[in-house]
What does this fold into?
Amino acid sequence: MKFLSSTLLAVGTLVLPFTVLADPSASREVPMTNQLIVMSLGAAEDKMLQLAEAIPADAYGYTPMEGVANVGEVLKHLAGANYYISSMLGRPIPTGITPRELGEGADKATLIEIYRASVTHAKQALEQVSAEAMAEEIEFFGMTAPRGRLALMVADHQHEHLGQLIAYARANHIVPPWSH
It folds into this structure.
C-alpha cells in the first residue's frame, strides 16, 4: 500500500504543474495526454524553426541524393501533414489550403510561416479532442488504433523530420543553433 501511495504522490507531483496549461476560460479542461502531445509538438516546432532560420535560403534546395525531399520540401511536407492529420482529429482544413499543394514555389520566409501556421492549427486540433475521443478506435493509414495514436503521430512526425533536417544542416556545415 505504501508503494501505491508513493506512486500516486509522484504521479500527482508530475502532473499538477501541467494542469495550468489548460485555458481556464474553456468549457472543459484539455486532457493531460493532449497537453503532453502539444508540449512535444511545441518542442519539435521550436527546434525546427531555429534550424529552418539557420539554413540559408540558397541551401533550401539541398538534398543528399536524388528522390529525397530537399529542405523546403520537408517543411512543405510537414505543413501539409499537420493540416491533414488535424482534419482527421476533427479540426477542418482552413478554406483555401490544399495540403498537397501547400507552399509550392514559396521562398524561405514563406515556407517558415506556412510551417508555423500548420503547427498552430495542429495544436488547436489536439486541444479540442476529448479524452473519450482519444480512446476511440478509428481507422487511419491502413490500421485501426485509438485516435490518441493518430494524435501522437503529429508530434512523432515533427521529430522524425527534425532529425532529417539536422542531418542536412550538418552535411552543409551548419550547427543546429540549440547545440552550440
Observations:
- The beta strands are 137-140, 143-146.
- The chain has six helices and two strands.
- The domain at 29-179 is CATH 1.20.120.450 (Four Helix Bundle (Hemerythrin (Met), subunit A)).
